[in-house]
Amino acid sequence: MNDSWWAACALLLVFEGLLPFVAPGLWRRMWMQVAQLRDGQIRFFALCSIGLGLLLLLGL
Question: Which of 5, 20, 22, 60 is the most buried (most CB within 10 A)?
Answer without folding.
Answer: 20
